[in-house]
Design brief:
Elements (H helix, E strand, L loop, with lengths): L29 H18 L10 H31 L4 H20 L3 H7 L2 H8 L8 H8 L8 H14 L1 H13 L4 E2 L2 E2 L5 H5 L4 H17 L1 H21 L5 H6 L6 H13 L1 H14 L5 E2 L17 H11 L5 H12 L3 E2 L11 E3 L7 E3 L7 H23 L9 H21 L4 H37 L6 H16 L3 E2 L21 H19 L2 H12 L6 H8 L7 H20 L9
Parallel strand pairs: 3-7, 4-6
Antiparallel strand pairs: 1-2, 5-6
Helix pairs in contact: 1-2, 1-3, 2-3, 3-7, 8-11, 11-19, 13-19, 14-24, 15-16, 15-17, 15-18, 17-18, 18-19, 18-21, 19-20, 19-21, 19-24, 21-22, 21-24, 22-23
Length: 605
């Protein structure tokens, strides 16, 4: 897209077809989607016939599990397609109606299958042990063993059915938040350029400080005008989490969120503690930023602008793909050529359009291409890293879906964030090694520092905030706008340090983070980076054995718990050492930047 095209946000129909994802690997047209939607009714009706049969024999249990796979595959395709179409244009009534249809059917399907886990867990332990030893159930042994862990947290069939029927309305806070912030809010224009959730990042990276400030204040003015609504939505989401933890007999909502991955709360606490220990390095960085920008006061809208002014970087989309593929050469020809074909083909929905979901994501499924949503801007280097990041997710999906049966191809988010940030590390190392000047090298290093801040320090601050908000609700202190803002400001002050002068509205940032509606998700970005830093260095410095061990990790899918799969790949996330090592990498890069800028390390105020 050229600069003139970027001045206005185009309508969906104005985006060339070659720049949009091709969803035909899911459905060739809307009629085919509707036909499968009708098939889902048959699965819902048939589910009842399996009730009270699961413990009668290994063959009966396998028959149901085969049925569960069929229904699950059908639902996944339907839901995946509806979600992707709604992400293209959230303002489309047609897309929203389709999403509503599958949401309703999904709730009914979940309710019809709600007897499964209670009935499975009611089977006598000795009988279940005998059944698991039967060859017939071998393809499902991993799935069954993981379900059996939930024995203390599964309710009676009638109670599970009630919870299943409640699942759709429970998502209301998140859906309202997305509709308000992505569609309804009109942020206007700044200097003739549209201001949106997506373009906000570009404004904050502009070298014109007055422009950054204007965009920042105008953007948060709209959040300030809706702060009570947004606070109520977030409080409602926390109440849902607390309710679910209580009825399922988990000690707290955080323990409930970590339980499926078999991750202890100690891993979460180790992350926060280790990052807290290394905050002096982060404060040193912000003092350096203040000095290099020549500011008397560092403000919240000053933390994303590139530090190296005399290096202009522009990567049109196709060039970005080639750069990424070159940097990933240590992963081998198969990995690189598959990714290149997808990124230059139709895996990616490349550019912003009106109503399109902000940010970026990868959305893989068992029976389709691993699609990527981008809002790519060629003059924002972060977008090149984002494309590499999402490409890592998509290749993880590609390997996993081709190496595992449907019942355990889904890897955890804990593992997913390793695959994505691994790619970013290889890209950063490639760019630094090939920089043709000290200025370019300083530019790339400063970018890598910013990425580690975004992935390690910032996500850990988010994780600490989420835990404190949920703990407050669970202790009987309701979450309000006041407690949200007070807690978030305390954390901003702790993480930014004394170099930062916060704005009155800075703590409203707590109301605009979409991941907060998926509680206890963001800590995985930080743990993922810690693992990725270790594994990327192992692959870059090693040979075929190290590469193959990493690719085996990508292929493992959901066949292991994440702590175990990462340990086999070469990093032990049950200890704080990988987190400390990651913060050491940050401190080392910071020292290199200080040297390149002709400054003694830490010698700036």
């Amino acid at each position: 897209m050229n600069k003139e095209q970027k001045r206005d946000i185009p309508l969906r129909g104005q985006i060339p077809e070659t720049d949009r994802w091709d969803l035909s690997s899911l459905y060739p047209n809307e009629t085919a989607w509707e036909e499968d939607l009708q098939k889902l009714d048959a699965y819902i009706s048939r589910a009842e016939s399996f009730r009270r049969t699961l413990g009668s024999s290994p063959e009966s249990l396998k028959s149901f599990l085969d049925f569960l796979n069929e229904a699950g595959l059908c639902y996944e395709r339907l839901e995946h397609y509806a979600f992707l179409r709604a992400s293209e244009d959230g303002g489309s009534d047609e897309h929203q109606a389709r999403l509503g249809k599958i949401s309703q059917k999904g709730s009914r399907l979940q309710a019809s299958l709600s007897f499964f886990e209670p009935e499975l867990l009611s089977i006598d332990k000795s009988v279940m042990t005998s059944m698991l030893a039967h060859e017939t159930l071998k393809p499902y042994s991993i799935k069954l063993q993981k379900i059996l862990r939930f024995r203390p947290h599964v309710l009676s069939p009638s109670e599970e059915r009630i919870l299943a029927l409640q699942s759709e309305p429970a998502e209301t806070p998140q859906h309202v938040f997305e509709a308000l912030t992505n569609v309804d809010l009109d942020f206007g224009t700044v200097a003739g350029r549209p201001l949106s959730q997506s373009t906000f990042a570009s404004f904050l990276m502009d070298f014109d400080r007055s422009l950054r400030e204007t965009a920042y204040r105008q953007f948060y003015l709209h959040f300030d005008q809706h702060k009570h609504t947004l606070a109520s939505l977030y409080a409602g989401s926390i109440k849902q989490d607390t309710y679910q933890a209580f009825v399922r007999s988990h000690p707290c909502s955080r323990a409930m969120a970590l339980f499926p991955d078999n991750v202890s709360e100690e891993v979460y606490d180790n992350l926060v503690s280790a990052v807290r220990d290394r905050l002096p390095a982060l404060h040193r960085y912000y003092r350096l930023r203040k000095h290099l920008l020549g500011l008397d006061e560092l403000r919240h809208y000053d933390v994303y602008v590139p530090l190296i002014k005399d290096v202009n970087v522009t990567f049109p989309y196709d060039e970005a793909v080639e750069l990424i593929c070159d940097s990933l050469a240590p992963l081998g020809t198969d990995y690189v050529e598959t990714l290149r074909g997808g990124l230059l083909g139709r895996w990616v929905d490349r550019y912003e359009n009106k109503g399109k979901r902000s940010g970026a994501f990868s959305a893989g499924s068992f029976s389709s291409d691993p699609f990527i949503l981008m809002n790519y801007k060629e003059d924002v280097l972060r977008d090149v890293f984002t494309l590499a990041h999402e490409g890592g997710h998509s290749m993880h999906s590609w390997y996993s879906s081709r190496s595992n049966p449907f019942q355990h191809y889904r890897y955890t988010i804990f593992e997913a964030e390793v695959a994505s940030t691994f790619n970013e590390q290889l890209l950063a190392s490639y760019l630094i090694a090939r920089a043709d000047s000290d200025a370019m090298k300083a530019y790339i290093i400063s970018k890598q520092l910013d990425d580690i801040i975004a992935t390690m320090f910032r996500q850990t601050m988010f994780a600490e905030f989420e835990h404190r908000m949920h703990a407050s609700q669970e202790a009987g202190s309701p979450v309000t706008l006041s407690t949200i803002r007070t807690t978030y400001r305390e954390l901003q002050e702790a993480y930014f340090g004394d170099a930062m002068v916060l704005e009155e509205v800075s703590d409203l940032e707590a109301l605009r983070i979409p991941h907060f509606y998926r509680a206890f998700y963001v800590y995985k970005y930080a743990t993922g980076l810690s693992a990725a830093l270790a594994l990327s260095r192992t692959v870059m410095e090693g040979g075929a054995a190290e590469r193959d061990r990493y690719l085996a990790f990508l292929r493992s899918g959901g066949s292991k718990y994440p702590i175990d799969s990462l340990r086999e790949a070469g990093v032990d996330m049950s200890t704080p050492e990988p987190v400390y090592a990651a913060t050491d990498v940050f401190a080392s890069l910071l020292g290199k930047l200080e040297t390149l800028m002709g400054m003694s390390q830490g010698g700036h105020t």
